[in-house]
Amino acid sequence: LLHLWLGPEFVRYAPLLSLLTLPLCINLSMSPLFTIQLATRNVHVPGIVTFIMGAGNLGLALLFAGPLQWGVYGVAAAGAIMLTAKNTAFTPLYNAHIIRRPPTTFLYELLPIVVSTLAVAAGAWALSRVLAITSWLMLFACCLFFSLLFVIAVYFLALTPAERERVNLMLARVLHRVTS
After folding, report:
1. What is the pLDDT of residues 98-115, one digit of tens each?
2. What string of H, E and C letters represents the secondary structure of the chain?
3. What is the model's pTM?
């Protein structure tokens, strides 16, 4: 992606791109939970925790980039560590507390998200080792391939029978409209 998008001189930043994007599977999955905090007006504690984690992020970034000499990787690692820690340890637990649900209510949902993200990342990495992606069309085709594989895996491995039935009904309606 970096070679195609920005040129060969940026390929060396591929590990940095991975470090910045892989934690997004957890951090972005927590976004819907923030609406619970807003709707219930429980924003004081998350604000304090975010401030503390931000200070920790700054301290960790200075440590990693300075004395440990990790440079931009240190800044990225500090951000990934602190935000992911907050969104793994605090956000799901606090939201479960707000709505009076068991503490693990939202934590169990993280495992399939992380596993599927790592599976797609590993598959994409493996594909990049055997196939030189030299055009936007080829990149699009690879993305389409992985998207279809992911949809099939989710359909058979993640959905309950009732959810699969709803998907089947929706697909039947769409096919009926298209063919009518």
Report:
1. 999 999 999 988 998 999
2. CHHHHHCHHHHHHHHHHHHHHCCHHHHCCCHHHHHHHHHCCCCHHHHHHHHHHHHHHHHHHHHHHCCCCCCHHHHHHHHHHHHHHHHHHHHHHHHHHHCCCCCCCCCCCHHHHHHHHHHHHHHHHHHHHHCCCCCHHHHHHHHHHHHHHHHHHHHHHHCCHHHHHHHHHHHHHHHHHHHC
3. 0.81
